[in-house]
Amino acid sequence: MTDAVNPLLEGLRLRRNPDPCALVIFGASGDLTRRKLFPALYSLAARQLLPERFGIVGVARTEQTTKQWIAEMKRAVAEHGRDELRADVWKELAAAMRYVATDFADDAGEDKVVEVLRELDEQRGTGSNRVYYLAVPPVAFETIVNELGERRSHEGWTRLIVEKPFGQDRESARRLNEMLLAHFGEDEIYRIDHYLGKETVQNMMALRFANGIFEPIWNRQFIDHVQITVAESIGIEGRAAFYEEAGVIRDVFQNHLLQLVALTAMEPPIDFTADSVRNEKVKVLRSLHTPGPKSVVRGQYGRGFVEGEEEPGYREEDGVASDSPTDTYIAAKLYVDNWRWADTPFYVRAGKRMARRETTIAIQFQRAPHPPFAEIAGDGLRPNVLLIHVQPDEGVSLAIGAKVPGAGMSIRTVHMDFLYGGAFRTGLPEAYERLILDAMLGDATLFTRADEVEEQWALVDSIVAAWKRDRPSFPNYAAGTWGPRTGDDLLHRDGRSWRRH
Amino acid sequence: MGVVAEVEHRLAELRADDKTSGTRTSVMTHVAWAPPEWANAARRTLAGLEELHPSRTILLFPDPKRRDSIGVNVALRCFTIPGSTRQVCSDVIELRLGGKRAAAPASIVQPLLIADLPTFCRWRGLPPWGKPELEQLIDVCDRLVVDSAEWRGLSRGYAEVAKHFDRIAVSDIAWGRSVAWRGRLAAEWPELKKVKRLSVTGPKADALLLAGWLRTRLRRQVALTHRAAAQLERVAVDGEALVPPPGGPPSPSDLLSAELDQFGRDPIYEAAVTAAS
Q: pTM of this prediction?
């Protein structure tokens, strides 16, 4: 029996806990930290998924003490957390928290962060392992990364989590990658697209690759087309400065939507390691194209009613120019140029202030080749659709034709539903819980790699280049609807239509 | 009307009367054998379990001392899906088996199993080794879940359960209860290589299984000193106490839930049982 192989570990069903580490959040007083990061950290703490030896350092410009920051984060967890706030869990988490008020460019402030981290190593045994979370606007990335790079220690491991938006186009994304790679290895960089942390998005891979019945028919021979919808009923929620620059194409299409396309269309990876999965996604992103400018529709919402409330048009939102050309809706027909998907359209759409919040992937199969009861079934006989509900009502539905009980042969489409909340009643973890934990564990599978990001931008750049030549007539859809008529026409021209809601 | 037909009829009535618009869902059939002294504990565990493992639950309450009879009670347990107004419901079938009916449960259980889903059988108390009720349920279930801390005569119990390893996958909640402590012991490798003495304060079953595990994994004799306690409180190696794992002891529902996530045989557990017998 050698020392190298520990016989006691065999068969031990232990949860994988991260190494001791300190998490440093830049932007610690910001909205993301309050709404998402701390509720996620609390949920991890409540489930004992954080390292036993753990520290959190909040860094932000806001002048406040550690005590004040702890109180603010406690309120945030109570307001936004999915778990009830328990005094014992919070006490333990709060004991690990430190706050440093500084401008990110201030050398003395950054030195103070290093000093606090050293103290945490000594007091809490965080072992010089660091997770840096950039919960700040992109304009601050370079300053922070350079400061971190200059001060990085060679003891322990380092991981850097970078929030979107990752660049504004391919060129800026490439420059950002170069800047990050000057200080950190690619295996140390975790680019977050929080959609990948959603259980239902990961379930796409389980659905496809753990079920023998789907993969044989997951191709152009059996699938007529794919529809992906990322719809929000909310507006820009006070983010005019960001949204005026980004629009829906950079806010949602470039990242979430294209990731969903990649997961739907990718080939089976040889295993579930980070690079195997990301290699397959990159191949899809490289194969994507739109047939031409007419295959992309953009829109902007005007005044309208959402869930009974009258809402202003985009150009009436605070901070938005009265003649703003910014897109709040995009629909596109995409093709994946490979053997599996040639000539199979992927219709995708994303928008703000749409009729309801919904993210779905609908796989519409070919019609039955010769339904013997087509005439008597009439309108009831529709193609099979496999519907993956990413949010809300997470789950999977399969639309199948079934005989209506009684005389005759009347066929109706019925849904077989698998609801996540029903079959696995564990309460779905928030995406940020999974992603923060994965970063601590060093698992980059659900994070985007540099080449993925650049390929996503390549497609966006080609679309935006065409947009520069035309002057859209905005607004072109009312808030609370499913987008402009031209979005419907995109499918009608092909003899198809968006799924009925 | 036969018992199975009666159960199916009542389930159909519940579905017809259902005002919850609930979706039925199951990931398994969960059969629980609970003699009268275990009936309340079985119901309590079930209440905490269904949220994690929605299943058709068949609760068998045997009472051989009563007259020959089968009492049926059928209910739906519904839960609101978090963040939604939709409900999900599971069937709960209670069967009170009086007199000699208690010796022939499989004929009722088998037609009520949900096809194509695994069947887990939680046996409360010491299984009656060799008796028809146990033999029958072993034949219809995929996994037998016991808690050897509920047994008297542990050595004989372990020897008996080991005889069934080739027939059915077995889980012991006492084994599950020690997983965090086994993690602690594993972290002591390679210093633990020459351990001579293990001291455990906790249920005797947990102590015997921990010692059996160390003996088989390290292939050496390890003496066990045991002090009784309701929970696993302390583990020491050659006089040195280990730092307790974080968090409190898991609830009975959580422990059973963890066992219901296991499907195949567990050779490490089987070896520990053999060494503990």
A: 0.77
